[in-house]
């Protein structure tokens, strides 16, 4: 049988090391062949190569010169990432990257239009190119039970990071504003944009409780949407309850409420519950479980492979969702940088 997997090289091993491991596992390896890796730190490259058996490229230019590489997994810091994505696209290769996509909405819009004009695939994990199974189920319940418009939504996650300042972009309030939101809460922002529609305004709160970094370790974002819905995204690096990244979503519609609880335990599942009125009284109308490997924010490697093989570029709607998220982040970045909001 012909191997239809995509040959992908990973650039940037700070986070990309996790991607290398995912591509070697059952989810990633079915759709992606790891072509190689590169990182500015030669020791990191050597360590990853020794563990994964991957080829080491000197730099991104060497990857782009390799005609056998069809796609690049780009895992560099978000600041000016659009420039690197543009270079990859101009070399005729597809791109998979991560949230946050970029910190400049104009640069993001330009490189997304470049992908569309060249009919090349440009995906990231959040927002994903297609609604994830948990998002699709919520949308299906909304239609099936005529839940109406979203009214309010709350998304929360936490972990416990005992970080120290290291001079990286994560120490810079301008490049890592309201850090827990910028690094983790992006998933919640993208969930709420997917489920509640176009955001029109936001308000930020942040605090620095015990982190060794000069950036925040506790933050909350209020969002208003064009349809009148209100949302809140909360993220913290200061909660140590043994359940890190246990994302929770509560969304109230006009005629029902959906609760989603996501656990990242080894045996964890994504549980969804729909509460509403049936027979004149409130009761549970539906319950469901979804594999945590498929929840919103997970890499859609199968979708990526099929899009490349079928020569399907990104839609205008997907590009707009990506830019909407960055515009929201850009708005709370400006709020964080005001003197009265400084930590």
TrEMBL record:
<dbReference type="Pfam" id="PF01408">
    <property type="entry name" value="GFO_IDH_MocA"/>
</dbReference>
<feature type="domain" description="GFO/IDH/MocA-like oxidoreductase">
    <location>
        <begin position="143"/>
        <end position="258"/>
    </location>
</feature>
<dbReference type="InterPro" id="IPR000683">
    <property type="entry name" value="Gfo/Idh/MocA-like_OxRdtase_N"/>
</dbReference>
<dbReference type="Pfam" id="PF22725">
    <property type="entry name" value="GFO_IDH_MocA_C3"/>
</dbReference>
<dbReference type="InterPro" id="IPR055170">
    <property type="entry name" value="GFO_IDH_MocA-like_dom"/>
</dbReference>
<feature type="domain" description="Gfo/Idh/MocA-like oxidoreductase N-terminal">
    <location>
        <begin position="6"/>
        <end position="125"/>
    </location>
</feature>
<dbReference type="GO" id="GO:0000166">
    <property type="term" value="F:nucleotide binding"/>
</dbReference>
<protein>
    <submittedName>
        <fullName>Putative dehydrogenase</fullName>
    </submittedName>
</protein>
<dbReference type="InterPro" id="IPR051317">
    <property type="entry name" value="Gfo/Idh/MocA_oxidoreduct"/>
</dbReference>
<dbReference type="InterPro" id="IPR036291">
    <property type="entry name" value="NAD(P)-bd_dom_sf"/>
</dbReference>
